[in-house]
Design goal:
heterotrimer, A mainly alpha (447), B mainly alpha (169), C alpha/beta (318), A: 20 helices, C: five-stranded mixed beta sheet, binds sodium ion, transmembrane helix (chain B), transmembrane (chain B)
Chain lengths: 447, 169, 318
């Protein structure tokens, strides 16, 4: 079997197994293993010899899996997940939301704006979009419904706000992107800042316009302000600000590596939680267990994907595809649009990590062959994955919001609400696509 | 990325054994130790000299604990990341049948991983190689932990397969 | 038509990558296209730590092996990293090549690891790049230096505080004052732009890192016919001279450029005084003794053979 057929069969098998509900890790790892044995067992011009294929395949599986786990730089993944979980259990998230509520109470749709800004704030201390949506959804949606907000606005705002989680650093998706494309985590984290803030601005503007057009959808927070609420507001903000400043500032000024930033901010979040009496043995262990379980899930997928990538690299299928592309020589804009549409489409069905590890071996070489800055491309891909979180039929953020809100809010309501937020978000995407400097200016100016 | 489904997220979740939960707790402790090691060294380096030798190597060893030890709990509670969109419509018997397929593919993949991990341990032991530094941490330490985690994962998969087969038949 | 998979941990840039491209082109030309090399750069196939095992098992046919990653499995070959007086690039490289191809004890070590030695690289001589001017060994007392391996051990004996970190993190560490000096090579100082944050170089011209070579899977070697094997081994030997020339040129160029100044940053080079150099080599001897103790019986004889090769090459060269 020639490499092209072999790759076709293996990729086809992966997709078949995925459709049949086989976990991404098993499907990728199992198929990659079969592919490796076949590849090594098949010397050109000779018969298939499975025994000969087994030794290098096992060796490569071992090397990929173990090196991936036994890694210092990747320790930032559990550390950043831990930071989010500890911040949640230490009530840093809740305080942040309460403070923003006070500060934004005079704005039209102030509660919705506070929820979205709260998502942005929580994004700054956690690496995961869905964690953002879950944490903020639990707090903010019931609150907005209590004030008779339109359910679509209430749930859509948090679902959309949650998508800031992976764009604003820290971000697991950026770390995974960095590993599979050999780009700097520093650069990617910094590149996400401006696009993240821009997206935030787009969402806030959406709320503003929505509430101007239909004021009845956001009845005012009729100001049951307690005395001293202003001072309280500032007290609730600082932990999140300190942690964000530590990560982004530390990386920007070259004080920390991202791994060090992750560890130090986790320790500081622990210290804040303990000093305020919010963390006890029990919820500390809960935060720890949640973290390691999520880490375990993510790494199993990623190491299986590493095997799959090795298999793809061995078959030389991508250089061949690139030669083919070069022969056709389509204009860059066309290729870019095709890739954007491809990610939007696949984002409707697959989970973010799955998409990243499945597609990067194919899309990154194509982009690289056009001399595209891969940091910028990373921002675009992550933004597209974020959009995928709120598009039907599979919108992980939508499901999460649905699962933490009263059953009176239907899935369709959440999707419709989020769809309104997509209008301006698409505009932000176009802006990011056409003005790479929005992403690249910050990393390029860093120390 | 995935949210934090609690242990009973899946209605068919199997409760993990005491050993599996204990290992997950060790992993959680490992996470905090990891954060402590890096932080202590960052701070002590500013003040003068790094207190903990070979911090990079120690973190690497801890990573094996943090990632491998919770696999039993994750598998028992059916939290592996998968795409269920296309099969949501199936009756529950059909879903159990697919769960059997899942475990079979899992057994194949994890079985190969276990074999590969065993070869890794054997080699690390035979060569007696180590991470050159202050502590000269032997390579077999991490490889053995890795193998242990994979082996328990494999056993858990066999148990899951057995349970789902019994439901099906 | 044989295609050999070559695994390299580094990117397809710089003098070393260029030398590998030359190697591949020559091999294809001299075998009339019958044997060619397909590169997997940047660790896309095997990471640096996994390359030795990956070559032995046949994941790659050829690959770049860094001895530092397997201090026990390639214990004798790590002789190439010892701080002996071998700082002449050509002489040092020829000595480690001859030793690795001719000494039975080394060949046995490679056999045990399941690989076949082809040829060697070098980093060039070890120098020290510092934030402030250091001119003598006495000033090492309490100095925070990023260093590794036997060089680090020796600097520690001279009173320095040793910090380990990857070369990629050194820029920030020098900039923030976390470390005072860094053990490095001229070309790598330039590549990592360390001259921007540390304007002084103490030229130690102290040993080289040469436990750093190209190895091949024995079965893949046996698959070639006798004339192809001959071509490959001859080319491997020529590669040593090619790399020595290329590295010498690269190092001279980097040094010259940094002394002249790049974008307004330049370095001041101070050679280590002669009497200090003698003392440095004397203290280095202790690190060498450590290695001898660790590596056991055959190590002393291998070291003698290595020293003899260095002495012979050195006198020929002058
Ligand atoms: Na984030
Ligand atoms: Na979607």
């Amino acid at each position: 079997m020639d490499p092209v057929t072999l790759t076709g069969v293996i990729v086809g098998a992966v997709f078949l197994l995925l459709v049949l509900r086989v976990p991404i890790a098993y499907a990728l790892g199992g198929c990659a293993a079969v592919g490796l044995v076949l590849f090594f067992g098949w010397r050109p011009g000779q018969a298939l010899d499975l025994a000969r294929g087994l030794r290098p395949a096992l060796s490569l599986i071992e090397a990929n899996a173990y090196s991936f786990v036994h890694s210092y730089p990747l320790s930032m993944i559990p550390l950043f997940i831990g930071l989010g979980n500890v911040a949640f259990h230490a009530d840093i998230t809740t305080d942040l939301y309460r403070s923003l509520r006070v500060l934004l109470r005079r704005m039209p749709g102030g509660l919705a704006m506070a929820s979205i800004t709260g998502c942005a704030g929580f994004s700054a201390i956690t690496g995961s979009s869905v964690a953002c949506a879950a944490a903020m959804g639990r707090i903010a949606v019931p609150e907005m419904l209590r004030y008779k907000y339109n359910p679509g606005l209430a749930s859509g705002a948090v679902a959309a706000g949650g998508t800031l989680g992976s764009l604003i650093p820290p971000s697991l998706l950026f770390v995974i992107y960095a590993i599979f494309t050999e780009q700097s985590v520093n650069g990617l984290f910094l590149a996400g800042v401006v696009p993240g803030l821009l997206s935030l601005l787009g969402f806030l503007l959406t709320v503003f316009i929505w509430c101007r057009l239909r004021p009845q959808d956001a009845p005012g927070d009729d100001g049951e302000m307690e005395p001293g609420a202003g001072r309280f507001a500032l007290r609730g903000l600082w932990p999140a600000l300190v942690l964000f400043g530590l990560v982004v500032g530390g990386i920007y000024f070259g004080i920390f590596t991202p791994t060090e930033a992750a560890a130090v901010s986790l320790v500081i979040a622990l210290a804040i939680g303990m000093a305020r009496g919010k963390l006890n043995r029990e919820n500390l262990m809960t935060a720890g267990l949640d973290t390691v379980r999520q880490t375990s899930m993510i790494f199993l997928v990623a190491l299986a994907a590493k095997m799959f990538t090795s298999f793809i690299s061995l078959t030389r299928i991508t250089p061949m595809a690139l030669d083919w592309l070069k022969a056709i020589d389509p204009p860059f804009a066309l290729v870019l649009i095709a890739i954007v549409l491809f990610y939007l489409l696949i984002g409707m069905f697959l989970d973010s990590i799955g998409i990243l590890v499945l597609t990067l071996p194919f899309t990154v070489p194509v982009m690289a062959s056009y001399g595209v800055d891969l940091i910028w491309f990373g921002v675009i891909v992550i933004k597209l994955l974020e959009i995928g979180l709120i598009t039907p039929p599979i919108g992980l953020n939508i499901f999460v919001i649905k699962s933490v809100t009263p059953s009176s809010v239907t899935l369709a309501t959440v999707f419709r609400g989020a769809a309104i937020f997509l209008l301006l978000d698409i505009l932000v995407l176009v802006l990011l696509l056409t003005v790479p400097a929005l992403s690249l200016w910050l990393p390029n100016s860093a120390f | 990325m995935r949210d934090l489904p609690t242990e009973d997220a899946d209605p068919d979740a199997v409760s993990a054994t005491g050993i599996e939960r204990f290992l997950a707790r060790i992993a959680a402790a490992g996470l905090f130790v990891m954060a402590a090691i890096v932080t202590i060294n960052v701070v002590s380096r500013w003040l003068g000299r790094a207190l903990i030798p070979d911090d990079v190597y120690l973190v690497q060893e801890l990573m094996v604990l943090v990632i491998l030890l919770p696999l039993g709990v994750v598998t028992a509670t059916r939290q592996h990341i998968k795409v269920d969109l296309f099969t949501e419509w199936l009756p529950s018997r059909g879903k159990v049948a697919l769960a059997v397929l899942e475990h079979l593919v899992g057994l194949f993949f994890v079985g190969l991983l276990a074999w590969a991990a065993w070869l890794g341990v054997r080699k690390a032991w035979l060569t007696q190689d180590y991470y050159a530094g202050v502590l000269d941490i032997p390579m077999w330490v991490g490889h053995s932990t890795f193998l242990l985690g994979i082996a328990l994962f494999l056993i858990r998969l066999v148990v899951m397969l057995w349970r789902d087969l019994r439901t099906l038949i | 038509q044989t295609v050999l998979r070559f695994s390299d941990y580094g990117p397809n840039r710089g003098a070393r990558a260029a030398a590998l491209e030359w190697f591949a082109e020559e091999l294809a030309t001299r075998t009339d296209g019958a044997v060619s090399i397909e590169f997997h750069w940047g660790g896309s196939l095997l990471g640096g730590r996994d390359t030795l095992g990956g070559i032995a098992s046949g994941v790659a046919d050829i690959g770049t092996v860094v001895g530092f990653f397997t201090p026990k499995e390639l214990e004798l070959y790590s002789i190439g990293d010892l701080p002996v007086a071998n700082s002449d690039i050509q002489t040092g490289m020829r000595a480690i090549y001859d030793l690795s191809t001719q000494d039975d004890r080394l060949t046995a070590e490679f056999d045990a690891a399941g690989v076949r030695y082809l040829t060697n690289y070098t980093t060039g001589p070890v120098e020290l790049i510092c934030r402030s001017e250091i001119t003598t060994l006495d000033e090492f007392q309490g100095l925070k230096i990023r260093a590794s391996g036997p060089y680090g051990d020796t600097l520690k004996r001279l009173g320095a505080e040793i910090v380990t970190m990857s070369q990629a993190d050194v820029y920030q560490a020098l900039d923030s004052g976390l470390i005072d000096c860094n053990q490095n090579y001229y070309y790598s100082m330039r590549a990592y732009r360390q001259y921007e944050v540390a304007p002084y170089v103490l030229e130690l011209n102290w040993g080289q890192n040469m436990s750093f070579g190209i190895f091949m899977n024995p079965a893949s070697f046996d698959m070639l016919d006798a004339s192809q094997q001959e071509i490959l081994t001859t080319l491997a030997s020529e590669f040593v001279d090619y790399v020595a020339d290329a590295m010498t040129a690269e190092i001279d160029d980097a040094k010259e450029a940094m002394v002249a100044g790049i974008d307004g940053s330049s370095i001041t080079v101070t050679p280590l005084p002669e009497e200090d150099r003698a003392r440095l080599l004397e203290v280095s001897q202790e690190a060498i003794s450590d290695w001898l103790n660790r590596a056991g019986d055959p190590a002393a004889e291998v070291l003698d053979a290595y020293q003899a090769l260095l002495a012979a090459g050195g006198s020929e060269g002058q």
